[in-house]
Amino acid sequence: MTRIVSLYTIIHKYLNTNTLLYINTNIPLLSQGGVRMLQFNKKTNTLEQTQYRYSLQDVAEPNLYREIFNYDEIPKCAFNHRKVPMFPADEIWITDTTFRDGQQSRAPYTVEQILHLFDLLHKLGGPKGIIRQCEFFLYSDRDKEAVYKCLERGYKYPEVTSWIRATKNDFQLAKDMGMKESGILVSCSDYHIFKKLNMTRKQALEHYMSIIKSAIEVGIKPRCHFEDITRADFYGFVVPFALELRKLSEESGVPIKIRACDTLGYGVTYPGAALPRSVPGIIYGLRHHAGFPSELIEWHGHNDFYKAVCNAAAAWLYGASSVNCSLLGIGERTGNTPLEAMVIEYAQLRGTTDGMDTTVITEIAEYYEKELGYHIPPRTPFVGKHFNVTQAGIHADGLLKNEEIYNIFNTAKLLNRPVGVAINQTSGLAGIAHWLNSYFGLDGSKRIDKKDERVIKIKEWVDEQYKNGRVTAIGDSELEEVVKKIAPEIFDLVL
Q1: What's the distance, CA 422 to chain centroid?
Q2: What is the tens place of the pLDDT at every residue in 405-437?
Q3: Which of 21, 330, 466, 491 has the most other CB atoms within 10 Å of its CB?
């Protein structure tokens, strides 16, 4: 026992220097006085210290991290050079907030539109349900009808969940509508606790716990939205609050989920970045200091600093099972994490699509543009009209020789988006030849070479356009009319 106590003393010394160590609460090994101190982790094959005691710090004045978040300056990114290990969950998935957060920044979807998009999400997620849940409002008649119609589909995935106000009446509403899980807003930064709620940390925690208990009482699994977590006092409020939730979950037998909300997009992924902005630090802390399992941790990010996708990927890599997204990233202000981006990110990180039908991404984009009148910026990755379209002649020449030279992957197969060429003054003969072959679907012996006389004639017409002052690219329909005049026989090759 003396040797054990000595080892504990050494580890405790390191702990006092704020060195972050891994926690696993599932494998008890060594104890003192009935208190578990050390565990052997079978994944890392190391002996690890487990006792982290974080109590609520009920401060008199809010901690606004003014040295980082000076409102009159661009937020600063501080480093403490402490690194935490990557520890991806055995299983990861995507959840959707298109019909909740996504509806806060655009005209409401009709019931028919919601149902169609819900069907597309089901198809995209595949038989394994990589798109696990869809989140809905429950307040308007339109919202309720949409929820009922989506439930009638009988899909296992995506599961229909809700977001409600923290009142007993709303909990009962969610229960009556067949919801098994619902989101509840529990703001965790002092900006929100002191300045929005006019509470102390202790008052806020007590208030939140009473609300969550009420949800459990009516049979709703709570999903606690830790709003503004990237400006929150992590060890003074977030971890103590999470520990209380874990205790309640153990006592009630009801799984309680934490959604870590990067409400203003402050999160960063840099190695050694300090809390509260460190995404790895947040996820690590929820897992190892609060003891939450990966399957009950979800990341919800915004794109204010262009970091939504990399932050969501980091959340996966450091132990969150789920990331919350919206179609095309449509959401509050700069938007949420684009769902289609995380579908591709999933495949990159796992080496497989796991049955997801990625061609549905193109169906979704076309539906938004043609049916909903939503303009997708043309250079948006995966969904923009020009995302795999080249204009430079040298690139077009490379595509003509071998598509892999300038295309990111087989976009025709994976997205039903053949690589394209936009015709302008820089396209050259190769660009025109590639456009002809792609537009008319000419393969094998039918393919037209860049030295073909017809290509040369079309190139002369293009050059004349720009010589006369044209500045815009030449559209497909316009080029088709030119082909009808210069080389009508090409249309016969299509038959």
Answers
A1: 31
A2: 878 899 999 999 888 777 878 778 888 888 888
A3: 330
Q: Which of 124, 142, 230, 224 lies closest to 181 in space, CA to CA?
A: 224
Give the pairing of strands 131-136 and 93-96: parallel
Q: According to DSSP H, which parts of 84-137 are helical?
A: 111-125
- pLDDT given at position 109: 96
Q: Give the DSSP letter string of 475-488.
A: PHHHHHHHHHHH-T
Which residues are registered as beta bridge partners of 260?
226, 299
Asked if 235 contacts 276 with a C-beta cutoff of 8 angstroms, the reply is no
Q: How many whole angstroms separate alpha carbon 304 and alpha carbon 335?
A: 8
Task: Give the count of beta carbons closer than 10 Å to the beta carbon of residue 113.
Answer: 16
Residue ranges of the alpha helices (H) in 293-427? 308-317, 339-350, 360-370, 393-401, 411-415
Residue 285 near residue 262, CB atoms below 8 Å: no
- Please state, in angstroms and rounded to a whole number, the distance separating the CA atoms of residues 265 and 49: 33
Residue-wise pLDDT tens digits, 340-387: 999 999 999 999 999 999 999 999 999 999 999 999 999 999 999 888
